[in-house]
Structure formats: structure tokens, C-alpha cells
């Protein structure tokens, strides 16, 4: 698989380390009343879709940036790659 | 029809015209007491034990394609019970004892061959860990043997004993382990279940669950609505997709695991051999092919094929431990979709929906577990209580901190 790095261009996926669903960017509030349940769901439960999946990849053997890659889990086609920092900032700006 | 030597002779003398199909191609009835979703090894084994051991009737197995067409037909056929942890070992040892009597119970040749498994040891620390594992196995009634390097050399002289990076210091051996013909396991269970009155319904994909007041009443399928008293889902590889139809999220990611087989060779391997310094396991099929595999690719996937970096990694492991494999030509390689749970252990449990039960999360250890998984799941479906050997395989172990992390690593879906 070739990941189109937004800064470095096309890079072989083996330069990256895979973490999982990009929903992991949304860490729950540790002080919430039901933080136990929220963290259980955050740590252990996954949507695990067959099809389009947004996921976190770390460019370990490269510029050490975190990317949010949009990929089809049925065909392995990679549709988009964004810097995770940009994704997180955009989300914060949108509240 | 019971298979026997006498029957074979009679058929041979009469032109083999008397053989009947091993199971009926049943059409769905309006309702069943028990509906098992998934006609793979685990689903068919569940149906067999539910009908035979627990004497239940009105059972259907629903399969979206043809039976045995999923992971039971795509694995590396190894059977073993060399586990360490209390939540696991009793279960896998039960499975091993069921393998030993499987062919007699099913009246079907599953080619169970107890040719042994040899886990190679490459360091002093690893010998300590394997000695501990072997002792845990013996305490649970399994067999284990610790070999030194000289004994390993006598049994497998073709291994690379001169490798300075990965020296072979010995091995943990389970003699009762071995291999079985994976397709025949599915077919044998299917035939036996059919003979006990189970309807095996193929090309029947579940598209939804009818749930009212927190209780499942029926499954919607591509062949119509089928009423159900109790539904057991055993669809490892597709667990998240099927259970999402009931509104449930699972502690599972789907990953692809690749396997490989070489051209047929004369007998060279005495049994199953695993490389302890990397991740590589190999055995020889009765047809002569070297069947081997390694790690999962490591990213979510529902594609039944993997990528080249892991192919290279697996082959490097093979060359490091058994250089002669470099002379064999690869015949086929393929991928299967694994239910990877967050601690590397399976789930056999009830769900938050009454009457809906789940069996899955087998990571890539599902094949060896087939008999015990079927028995334990049938026990759960028939009695509502977990089987004595499968009490630890609960959904709530992640919230109560009772994970079964056989590999000693924390919560990530990349384990066995």
C-alpha cells in the first residue's frame, strides 16, 4: 500500500506504524461522571467497518508525523491522507 | 449412511453408485428453536454437539455462502493445547481430547495426525518461559516435554543450528499436538449434524435481527424471515458486521492473516515446528506441501489477501530457522480475515439481547479450538450457563480487568 503523505508525497506503508480507528483522537473526559464506561468503550470497542475506515498511521521511519488515512478495508485502496494535527485542530475549531 | 471398510468394499464392487450426499441441502422452515448463524467449523460443531450431546431438536445452521468456505478452509491446520493461562489451558486441552476421538464420534476421516509440535527455544530466558508453560500444561492434564539442543538436532537435523543470531537452545514439545484436514472437519461436523436432524441452509445470509422488548424473535435473511427461540452467532471474521445488525459493538478488529503452501515434497518435516525468535510456523501436509505462516499484516482488513512486507517477513523467519525451505517453490498464498480481540483471547458469551449468544474473537487460533468451541457454545445455548472450561471467555472481562493476555502484552488487537 502507498500512502500519499501530505508533506512528503507517496510513501510505502511499511514506513508507517498502524494504530487503528481515528476515533481514538477523541479521548473521553476522565472527570466525567461515567468515565469508567466511556474509557471502556474508548479503549476496547471498535466500529470495525467493512469499507471506508478512517485510521491513524504514524510515520515512524520518516518525519514522525501522525496521519489520518482514509482507506477501504475491503479493497485496501487508500483514498486520502491528512496530518492528524490538522484534523484535530479542525475538529476543535468546529467545536 | 455409516462409513466403514466393508461399505467401501461393497461400493468398490458395485461401481460406487451407492454413495449419497453427506448432508441434505435444506430449505429454511418458518421457525426453529435454535438458529446458528455461520456454517464454518465452529457453527457446524455447535450444531453437532447441540443435537447430539444436548439432545436438542429443531436446529438450523445458516451460511451466507457454502459451508466450510471461510476460515475453516483457510487456516494452517495445526491442533495443539500448549497454552499457559488458567482461563485458556483447560479449554484447549478439552479441545485436544475431543480431537483425539473426533473421527470415531463423527464416523468421518478428518485425518487427525498427532505428529507433535516443537516450539524452538533460542535463549535462556525463553527456556525458562517455556519450562513454565510446559509445567502449566502438565498441571492441566496436557503433555509437555522440554528438549535440549542435542535432542532437537536428532529430531530435526535440517534446522539451522549454526545461526549465531538465533541459536537453537532446545524446544518445548507437545507430542499429542499435530494437524487435521481442515475441510474434512467442517464436512464431518456437517454430516453428523445433518444425521441428527439439523437443517444446514446454504446461500442464506443474515441481513438483520428482529428484536422486541430486548429479546430476539427472528433473523431476517436473504431467504426470508426465520423465527428463532435462541440465536447463536459464530461468524469469526465477520463478527463486527453481523453483531452490528443487532446494534452491538465488539472489542474486535478484523485483520488479515496470510498463509502459504509450497509444491509437494517428499516427507521432510516430522511435525509442526515454530520459530521462537520471530514468528514463523510450518508443517507438512499429507500431500507433501510445506504449509506455513507468520504474523498478521497489522491493519484493519476485510480483504482475504495481504501485502508483500509481511510475505517478506514470514519468509525471512523461515530462512532463519530452516534454510532448506529456500529451495522449495511457493505454490499458493492466501489470506483470511481474523477477529482480533483486544487481549488475544476468544469470546463465548451471552449478549445484552436476550436469546442472542456470541462465539467469536478467535484471533488466529480458531481452528484448533473448533471441537471445544462447538461443545462450549452448545452448552451455553442449551443451558444458558457457560461451559466449565469456557467461563473466562466473557465480554465483560475488559471492563472488570480480567483480560486473558496469553502473550503477556496489554490491550491491542495484534495478538494471537
**How many DSSP-defined strands of chain B?**
18
Report how far apart the termini of chain B are.
Answer: 39 Å
Beta-strand proportion of chain A: 25-35%
- Spatial strand sequence of the major β-sheet of chain A: 3-4-5-6
Top-tier CATH class of chain A = Alpha Beta
Radius of gyration of chain B, CA atoms, in whole angstroms: 21 Å
| Strand residues, percent of chain B | 25-35%
CATH homologous superfamily title of chain A: Folate-binding superfamily
Order of helices and strands of chain A: EEEHEEEH
CATH topology of chain A: Folate-binding fold
Q: Under the CATH scheme, which class of the largest domain in chain B?
A: Alpha Beta
Structure description:
The complex is a heterodimer of chains A (95) and B (416). Chain A has 95 residues and is α+β, with helices and mostly antiparallel strands. Chain A has a single domain, classed as Folate-binding fold, CATH 3.30.2270. Chain A is 21% helix and 35% strand. Chain A has 2 helices and 6 strands. Chain A has helices spanning 35-44, 84-93, and strands at residues 2-5, 9-12, 17-21, 52-58, 66-72, 78-83. Chain B folds into 2 domains: 22-78 and 182-251 and 343-395, FAD/NAD(P)-binding domain (3-Layer(bba) Sandwich); 113-177 and 253-341, D-Amino Acid Oxidase, Chain A, domain 2, CATH 3.30.9.10. Chain B is built from 11 helices and 18 strands. In chain B, strands 1, 2, 8, 9, 10, 11, 17 and 18 form an 8-stranded mixed sheet that branches. An 8-stranded mixed sheet of chain B has the order 5-6-4-13-14-15-12-16. The longest helix of chain B has 16 residues, at 124-139. Chain B is globular and about 65 Å long. Chain A binds chain B through residues 1, 13-14, 18, 20-21, 36-37, 40-41, 43-50, 53, 55, 71, 73-76, and chain B through 238, 240-241, 244, 249-254, 298-303, 307, 309, 342, 398-399, 411, 413.
Question: What can be said about this structure in brief?
Answer:
The complex is a heterodimer of chains A (95) and B (416). Chain A is built from 2 helices and 6 strands.
Amino acid at each position: 500500500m502507498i500512502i500519499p503523505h501530505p508533506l512528503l508525497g507517496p510513501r510505502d506503508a511499511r514506513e508507517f506504524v498502524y494504530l487503528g480507528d481515528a476515533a481514538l483522537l477523541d479521548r473521553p473526559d476522565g472527570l466525567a461522571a461515567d468515565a469508567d464506561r466511556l474509557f471502556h468503550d474508548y479503549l476496547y470497542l471498535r466500529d470495525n467497518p467493512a469499507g471506508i475506515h478512517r485510521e491513524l498511521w504514524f510515520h515512524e521511519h520518516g518525519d514522525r508525523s501522525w496521519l489520518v488515512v482514509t482507506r477501504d478495508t475491503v479493497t485496501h485502496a487508500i483514498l486520502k491522507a491528512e496530518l492528524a494535527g490538522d484534523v484535530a485542530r479542525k475538529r476543535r475549531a468546529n467545536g | 449412511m455409516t462409513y466403514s471398510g466393508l461399505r467401501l468394499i461393497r461400493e468398490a464392487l458395485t461401481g460406487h453408485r451407492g454413495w449419497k450426499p453427506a448432508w441434505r441441502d435444506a430449505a429454511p422452515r418458518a421457525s426453529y428453536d435454535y438458529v446458528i448463524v455461520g456454517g464454518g467449523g465452529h457453527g457446524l460443531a455447535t450444531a453437532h454437539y447441540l443435537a447430539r450431546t444436548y439432545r436438542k431438536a429443531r436446529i438450523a445452521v445458516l451460511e451466507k455462502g457454502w459451508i466450510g468456505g471461510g476460515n475453516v478452509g483457510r487456516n494452517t491446520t495445526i491442533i495443539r493445547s500448549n497454552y499457559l493461562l488458567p482461563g485458556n489451558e483447560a479449554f484447549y486441552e478439552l479441545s485436544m481430547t475431543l480431537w483425539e476421538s473426533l473421527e470415531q464420534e463423527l464416523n468421518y476421516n478428518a485425518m487427525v495426525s498427532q505428529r507433535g509440535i516443537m516450539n524452538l527455544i533460542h535463549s535462556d530466558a525463553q527456556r525458562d518461559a517455556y519450562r513454565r508453560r510446559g509445567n502449566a500444561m502438565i498441571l492441566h492434564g496436557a503433555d509437555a516435554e522440554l528438549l535440549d539442543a542435542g535432542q532437537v538436532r536428532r529430531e530435526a537435523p535440517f534446522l539451522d543450528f549454526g545461526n549465531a543470531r538465533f541459536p537453537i537452545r532446545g524446544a518445548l514439545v507437545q507430542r499429542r499436538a499435530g494437524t487435521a484436514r481442515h475441510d474434512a472437519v467442517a464436512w464431518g461436523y456437517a454430516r453428523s449434524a445433518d444425521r441428527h436432524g439439523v437443517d444446514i441452509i446454504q446461500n442464506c445470509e443474515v441481513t438483520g435481527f428482529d428484536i422486541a422488548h430486548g429479546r430476539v424473535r427472528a433473523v431476517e435473511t436473504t431467504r426470508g424471515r426465520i423465527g428463532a427461540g435462541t440465536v447463536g452467532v459464530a461468524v469469526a471474521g465477520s463478527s463486527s458486521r453481523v453483531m452490528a445488525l443487532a446494534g452491538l459493538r465488539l472489542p474486535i478488529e478484523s485483520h488479515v492473516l496470510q498463509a502459504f503452501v509450497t509444491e509437494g515434497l517428499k516427507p521432510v518435516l516430522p511435525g509442526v515446528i515454530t520459530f521462537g525468535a520471530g514468528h514463523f510456523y510450518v508443517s507438512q501436509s499429507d500431500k507433501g506441501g510445506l504449509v506455513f505462516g507468520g504474523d498478521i499484516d497489522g491493519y484493519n482488513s476485510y480483504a482475504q489477501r495481504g501485502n508483500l512486507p509481511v510475505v517478506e517477513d514470514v519468509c525471512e523467519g523461515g530462512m532463519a530457522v530452516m534454510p532448506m525451505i529456500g529451495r522449495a517453490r511457493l505454490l499458493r498464498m492466501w489470506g483470511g480475515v481474523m477477529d482480533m480481540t483486544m487481549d488475544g483471547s476468544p469470546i463465548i458469551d451471552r449478549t445484552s439481547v436476550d436469546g442472542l449468544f456470541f462465539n467469536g474473537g478467535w484471533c488466529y487460533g480458531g481452528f484448533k479450538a473448533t471441537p471445544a468451541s462447538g461443545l462450549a457454545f452448545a452448552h451455553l445455548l442449551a443451558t444458558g450457563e457457560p461451559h466449565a472450561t469456557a467461563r473466562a471467555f466473557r465480554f465483560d472481562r475488559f471492563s472488570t480487568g480480567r483480560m486473558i493476555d496469553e502473550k503477556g502484552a496489554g490491550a491491542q488487537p495484534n495478538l494471537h
